[in-house]
Amino acid sequence: MDYSDYNIQFIKGVGDKRAQLFNKLGVYTLQDLINYYPRKYIDWSKTLTVKEVKSGEPAFIKATMITPVKEAKIRKGLTLYKCNFTDGETVIHVTIFNNAYLAKALRTFDDYILYGKVDRTFTEASMSSPQIEKAEKATGIEPIYPATTNLSSKIIEKVVRAGLDKVGAIPDTLPEYLLTEYNLCSLNFAIRQIHFPDKEENIEIARRRLIFEELLTLQLGLMKLKSKRATKNLLKMPLDFSEEFYSLLPFNPTNAQKKAVADCIADLNGDRQMNRLVQGDVGSGKTAVAGAVMYTVIKNGYQTAMMAPTEILATQHYESFCKLFDGTDIKIALLTGSTKATEKKKIKLALYDGEIDLIIGTHALIQNDVEFKNLGLVCTDEQHRFGVEQRSSLAMKGNNPHLLVMSATPIPRTMGLIIYGDLNISVLDELPPGRQEIRTDLVTSAYHQRIYKFIKNAVDNGNQAYIVCSLVDDNDSDLLSAKEYADKLSTEVFQGYNLGLLHGKMKPKEKDKVMQEFAKGNVQILVSTTVVEVGVDVPNATVMLIENADRFGLSQLHQLRGRVGRGKDKSFCILVSDNKSESSVERLKLLKSTNDGFKIADYDLKTRGPGDFFGTRQHGLPQLKIADMLEDTKILEQCQECAKYILKDDPNLDSFPELCRQISDMFRKTDY
Ligand code: ADP
Ligand code: MG
């Protein structure tokens, strides 16, 4: 039977009302139910005596009740029930709060198992509101489910039991030889044991299988997406024009840049179509690398498309490449959402006729009606803003063009493997020489008046400043929104100065307009949420003030800091935080001590976890139920190998219908 079509409400013990509670937990079908895993377990067989327990720690104590329950009404709504137990050596004073039902059920001289924190003195012990089970009942391992109001773990447990009865033996998704190869238990065993383990070891065995299942599904899904593109290099480009390109630059490329360009140019003439990620910290000069590769592709006779996540970035790239290629015969055009309809039509026609060599744009570029004569390279900038699907849909245009991706987000290796799969990676691990060190300061809000004065000074000297504050749609009412703060700043603090406001709820067009005004220098102080983090270049901006800095991830702060220090003037990054906690201060101090984006990302990852560092939204990957992409790296690597192996023989997964269903289920919920 198809469990994913079976509505939860028809399972024994559920019904209409309870089904709604399950829905709140994301459980709609029988399939969802059997995949709703316990978050922990209580092993009732692990009993100790009071003397074996450390005071203050939770434990299971097998004990006999020795005094009847005494009831004490403390006040309305609070009734205490007290009684004594003994484990044979020590008397345990037990207090139960409000639970009349439990208190009534207890019988003197019966044996129970008490689970909870044990507070011990020399001669006695006490437990407050322990979980109490009859000794003869409390033998196995009890699953504890993430529960909700009116839907307790106990009820969920009962329903899962009924659900598992209903499904019967669960057919396996993987053939026997793969189970053997990767030392996995059967799916049936895994599902049953993850809910109701017979013994503790089985939990790990079951978990491993389910993690494998989930990561394999993820991996296969991503690989299938990627395999929409052919990998054979149908556009071999034998000529290397990088030196010619370098002679156009007003500076000498760094060794890291040259190495990355050489990697790409080798790809262009390789057996397989280029799929390369160039990863480099803010300011490492990724644009010049892209430029060299695009120049080479164009000189080999092909068209090139460069895609940026925002209009302002696309426009900036357009302007700088126009300048750089001035004097060459390369024809460049800009295509964004705000390009006028008639102009758009002209550009599209010219692209189709091959009259444009380099097209720079935003999402408008990937619309279906843009056609190329001979597209040779697609280059995406700051790629983490694009989903895989968007990337591949541009790549599908034309005759499987080469693909170059640039990202400023440092990514741990296994994570990179997941997100970029078969992409090759070049790292720019060197900053151009002569970069000014940005001075970073960490202060409390008591310094605001001085900071404002400092900003006024900078602006009076002809420079510009960013002020970044908390998100505008933040419900946290004690923090000012960007809008409120901007109002306050323009009316009270910076009267007579030109302020601009940028926040996430503005339309892209409005944002771009403000950004343009800032880039032109008409706006002197830009008050903004984090939307400025993407690689805009305003060399005249020298102050970056970040309010409530402790609320941001370090990598994010680092990206923000990278918005200044791009010109000839000394630049400053001021982090304001009133958070006195040791961990918060330590984090922010790290930022002060280093400018190395990889080091910062590493620290972020270790202390805040992948959720913050790589919010699902940002990396665009589906939410996982049991696997953890950072913890389960070993299984992840096995899955990557296994997925490749499976797809080699069976690219359409014809013999894995259940995996196919799981893949579409997993990817349905994301914006792939
Ligand atoms: P990012 O990697 O953050 O995209 P950019 O490509 O925007 O960095 O480069 C940042 C700045 O550094 C630009 O102004 C660019 O002209 C300059 N730049 C890039 N490469 C070099 C180099 N080798 N020497 C000097 N300046 C460089
Ligand atoms: Mg950039």
Description:
Helices cover 39% and strands 19% of the residues. The protein is of the alpha/beta class and 672 residues long. The protein folds into 5 domains: 1-44 and 143-168, no CATH class; 45-139, Beta Barrel (OB fold (Dihydrolipoamide Acetyltransferase, E2P)); 171-229; 242-428, P-loop containing nucleotide triphosphate hydrolases (Rossmann fold, 3-Layer(aba) Sandwich); 438-613, Rossmann fold (3-Layer(aba) Sandwich). The chain has a 7-stranded parallel β-sheet with strand order 13-14-12-15-16-11-17, with helices on both faces. The protein has a 6-stranded parallel β-sheet with strand order 18-23-22-19-21-20, with helices on both faces. It has a 5-stranded mixed β-barrel with strand order 3-5-6-8-7. α7 packs across α23 and α18 packs across α20. The longest helix is centred in the first third of the chain and has 27 residues, at 200-226. The radius of gyration is 31 Å and the shape is globular. The two termini are 28 Å apart. Residues 610-619 have low confidence and may be disordered.
